[in-house]
Specification:
The chain is of the alpha+beta class. The protein contains 13 helices and 31 strands. A nine-stranded mixed β-sheet has the order 1-9-6-5-10-4-3-11-12. Strands 20-22-23-30-26-27 form a six-stranded antiparallel β-sheet, with no helix packed on it. Strands 21, 24, 25, 28, 29 and 31 form a six-stranded antiparallel β-sheet that branches. Helix 2 crosses helix 6.
Length: about 650
């Protein structure tokens, strides 16, 4: 039904369906709010996912998506006069006491009074365009998503809200060329308001349409914004009217990094290429430059911390590939998914999980804290995609068994899929750790200096133990290997200040090594915690090696270490350290790593090197020197009796 007298000629074509006693919709639109936290990231994900889903089947050309920004005169916005002088005014009268809604309406009013309005145009090519069934789902239906097959990425119909979330007018114009020819329509996620129709008061719904003769019927021509020539190639154009002015300044950079992070594998498989503002062309050959920018920028690295590791997997010429097998009980053929792994580059100990389109779904972690690796799991087969699509949440960033009609079976499938990944990685890379580190208990029978071990059969006897025959050349790598914390430091910098929290954290605190802090450190389940007693373990200021020389100490960025559990019940660990350069005036900091991956302090009660006792702080060990290129053993006793994962940082003079 039409709600307005057509007094503004061709501009009066907005149609807000309405009726009696409808529920009032304010400016708090749930389908838009979910994209507000990271609007440009959400836009890039949803747009490119939809374009990939619409790719021409069997084509060897990548789907091409173009993002372009420009300005148009406000008066050229479809239905401009009606919006400015009638619709917004009626909505303001309806919501005088709703602060959020009034703020939104005032912003729209100010924008329409300006001479020019920002537009972001997004176009795709080498796609089918919006077919009749896709058009109906996109324009007319809520929570519906019609795709060409069961392996497509979208499934909830919620992602179509992402473009509206970056529009200050909440207005998007769609134009597509598909089998049915050119179709265009405008959509506005507005608010409800009261109006008159045939003398009766009605309530409009929140969504309005700019279509043929003021209806929901599409127009059979392009909108022509920006002076474009009418399309001759199948595909879709999306015009975001009133592109959010707060996002304009850095939108090209944000879209670029988001696409690299979310569609790395799509670029790698040549399924996608993107052109941004007619300047930047993104394909896999450009990923190296983008990844290097991220590696060298601390702020970017915090936001996209796992991307370099995944990129390094694909760049490693010796990366390994494993086909998924043994899932026939779920209707999945062998080879419907591939696991790519590497232990080179910026390893992140995670696996990027993706489906057919190549968009990143999640990072699978908690695989191993002791093995160096990065991985990519690519589920490309039709059957596995059909299952994963059912289990995928609306944000497309996780899978859950509870979304299945058979949750128990779905839960088994997810566990089996994750187990395949974890066991494959452990079977592949544990061997390299076992080559360097002995099995549980074996280290008790070996000399402390690893460099003195010759690769031959040895019989070593230790007090209170039986003789053990060890063939070092052929250690059985399938036996239990020691839980080892391995780290090759490659990042870091100068650290001339106070060590991480120890005894001295609180309102009035000393340093972590002077033992005079007002409050205790955070508890990790050992015999320390919060308290207001002064510390008791601080070294004397006169002979504390670190305090005397800290101005010349630096964090050592190139050192290998192994932290081997000897007897967790008595808190005994063996720390093996191998620096690349000889070090003097060395301070070793220990942290405990919790299940969440967060660091916490750990208390050291004793440390020895070749039988000689070393100076200790709360969580620090001090040693005069370490030799280059040689494994050096330090025995450490902690104050707890819990099995711990330990991480080491080393500061010294070079």
């Amino acid at each position: 039904m039409k709600l307005f007298n057509k007094s503004y000629s061709k501009n009066s074509e907005w149609y807000f369906p309405g009726g009696k006693d409808l529920q009032m919709e304010s400016g708090s639109n749930a389908s838009l709010e979910m994209f507000k936290d990271n609007p440009l990231d959400s836009l890039a994900r949803e747009i490119c996912q939809n374009s990939l889903d619409a790719g021409i089947e069997g084509s060897n050309k990548p789907v091409r998506v173009e993002f372009t920004s420009f300005k148009v005169k406000a008066e050229n916005i479809p239905g401009y006069l009606e919006l400015r002088y009638e619709i917004i005014d009626k909505a303001m009268k309806q919501w005088p006491n709703e602060q959020k809604t009034m703020s939104m309406l005032r912003k729209m009013d100010r924008l329409l009074k300006q001479k020019y309005v920002n537009v972001l145009k997004i176009s795709d090519y080498n796609t089918t365009g919006l077919r009749k069934e896709n058009w109906k789902s996109l324009i007319e239906q809520v929570g519906s998503s019609v795709k060409k097959d069961s392996s497509s990425a979208g499934s909830f119909g919620i992602g179509k809200g992402a473009p509206f979330a970056v529009s200050d007018l909440r207005m998007v114009l769609y134009s597509t060329l598909a089998d049915e020819g050119i179709q265009s329509i405008g959509v506005m996620k507005f608010v409800s308001y009261k109006d008159k129709l045939n003398g009766e008061t009605i309530i409009t719904q929140g969504t309005g349409y700019y279509g043929k003769n003021g209806s929901k019927e599409p127009i059979s021509k392009d909108f022509g914004l920006g002076g474009e020539i009418s399309r001759t190639e199948k595909g879709t154009d999306i015009y975001i009217i009133g592109f959010n002015r707060d996002l304009i300044e850095n939108w090209t950079k944000e879209i670029t990094y988001s696409l690299a992070n979310n569609f790395l594998f799509s670029f790698y498989t040549n399924k996608l290429e993107v052109i941004i503002d007619n300047k930047v062309k993104l394909n896999y050959s450009k990923m190296n430059k983008i990844v290097e920018e991220i590696r060298n920028d601390k702020k970017l690295l915090r936001k996209y911390e796992y991307l370099p590791g995944y990129y390094d997997v694909l760049q490693d010429e010796d990366h390994k590939e494993f086909n998924l097998t043994g899932f026939k009980e779920y209707g999945i053929k062998d080879g419907e998914a591939i696991l790519y792994t590497s232990n080179k580059g910026d390893v992140n100990r995670r696996v990027l999980m993706t489906r057919n389109a190549g968009m990143k779904i999640k990072d699978l972690n908690r695989i191993s804290s002791i093995i160096k690796f990065s991985g990519i799991f690519y589920a490309h087969g039709k059957n596995i995609n059909g299952i994963l699509k059912q289990l995928e949440n609306p944000n497309h960033n996780d899978w859950s068994k509870d979304r299945s009609e058979t949750p128990k079976k779905a839960g088994r499938f997810l566990k089996d899929m994750n187990r395949f990944i974890k066991e494959t990685i452990k079977d592949t890379y544990t061997e390299k750790v076992a080559d360097e580190v002995d099995a549980y208990g074996v280290s008790d029978f070996l000399p402390e200096d690893i460099n003195s071990i010759r690769l031959s059969n040895k019989k070593v006897k230790d007090k209170g133990h039986k003789k053990v025959a060890i063939e070092i050349e052929k250690i059985n790598t399938k036996s239990k290997v020691a839980r080892v914390r391995e780290n090759n430091h490659i990042t870091g910098g100068d650290d001339k200040g106070v060590t991480k929290g120890g005894v001295g954290q609180g309102d009035s605190f000393g340093t972590a090594y002077d033992g005079r802090g007002h409050r205790g450190g955070s508890s990790t389940g050992n015999n320390f915690g919060y308290g207001d007693r002064p510390g008791e373990n601080g070294p004397n200021d006169n002979d504390d090696m670190f305090i005397k020389n800290r101005s010349s100490q630096k964090k050592i960025t190139n050192v290998k270490y192994r932290c081997i559990e000897v007897d967790h019940q008595s808190g005994m660990y063996r720390l093996m350290v191998k620096p690349d350069k000889s070090l003097s005036n060395v301070r070793i900091d220990l942290d405990v790593i919790g299940d969440s991956g967060k660091k916490d302090t750990v208390q050291i009660t004793k440390a020895t090197y070749r039988g000689k006792q070393l100076n200790i702080g709360y969580s620090n060990v001090y040693i005069q020197s370490l030799l280059a290129g040689s494994w050096q053993p330090i025995m450490i006793k902690l104050n707890g009796n819990t099995r711990l994962k330990l991480e080491v940082e080393i500061y010294a003079n070079i």
